[in-house]
Design brief:
Layout: H1 4-16, H2 21-28, H3 32-40, H4 56-59, H5 62-77, E1 93-97, H6 101-112, E2 115-120, E3 133-134, E4 145-153, H7 157-168, E5 172-181, E6 187-188, E7 191-198
Length: about 200
């Protein structure tokens, strides 16, 4: 996608396929507020201050996705990407955030012989009382040192939610690994953030 018109068309197409604003935001790596604007904009209205990241050239290619996923964790474990990588023992479980974090977490778990858990954010849950949850099909997190994997930090709200959830369920989140950080944050409630790329709006 190379233009605002393309983004509007893509957002409306996803909406027509019964995707909600939160799902569209995840698909397009935009904030929910930006997606709402794309779906309801009026001509001449002010454009929201957001950055669209299109990394489909990598996410659609399994070999490239594998390389990028392993580079992300290698950067974290080197200690350059966050203080958690320097701690003795490192993580013993990866938590992939649905949807985009899951394939990267799977690749990392396989390559490093780690256990894997899948987190479903509250914004994906149905009903009025929205709450995040871990998939019961994958590894339990209690007593585990967890590294959280996702593609993009947009507002940081989902990351805070995951960190809180893991701590409430007896886990020790030791790091957050993402490809792109749109906030430029170094930690979420004391958990170091390691990002390969930081996006800055000038």
């Amino acid at each position: 996608m190379t233009s605002l018109t393309d983004l509007v068309e893509r957002a409306k197409s996803l909406h027509a396929d019964n995707h909600g604003p939160s799902q569209i935001a995840d698909e397009l790596n935009l904030s929910t507020e930006t997606v709402t604007w794309l779906l309801t904009q009026e001509k001449g209205g002010e454009t929201p201050k957001d950055v669209h990241i299109d990394w489909t050239s990598v996410s659609c290619n399994a070999d490239l996705l594998k390389d990028l996923s392993l580079m992300m964790l290698k950067y974290y474990l080197s200690g350059d990407g966050g203080q958690g990588g320097r701690e003795a023992g490192g993580p013993d479980l990866v938590v992939g955030i649905a949807l985009s974090g899951v394939p990267m977490a799977t690749i990392i778990a396989v390559e490093h012989a780690l256990r894997i858990a899948i987190y479903h954010p509250a914004k994906h849950s149905a009903g009025d009382a929205r709450a995040g949850s871990l998939s019961g099909t994958f590894a339990p997190v209690a007593g585990r040192r967890c590294v959280i994997i996702d593609d993009v930090i947009t507002s940081g709200k989902t990351m805070k939610e995951v960190v809180d959830y893991l701590r409430c369920h007896g886990a020790d989140p030791v790091g957050i690994c993402v490809l792109f950080d749109k906030r430029g944050i170094s930690d979420v409630d004391g958990v170091p953030v390691s990002s390969l790329f930081r996006i800055s709006r000038l």
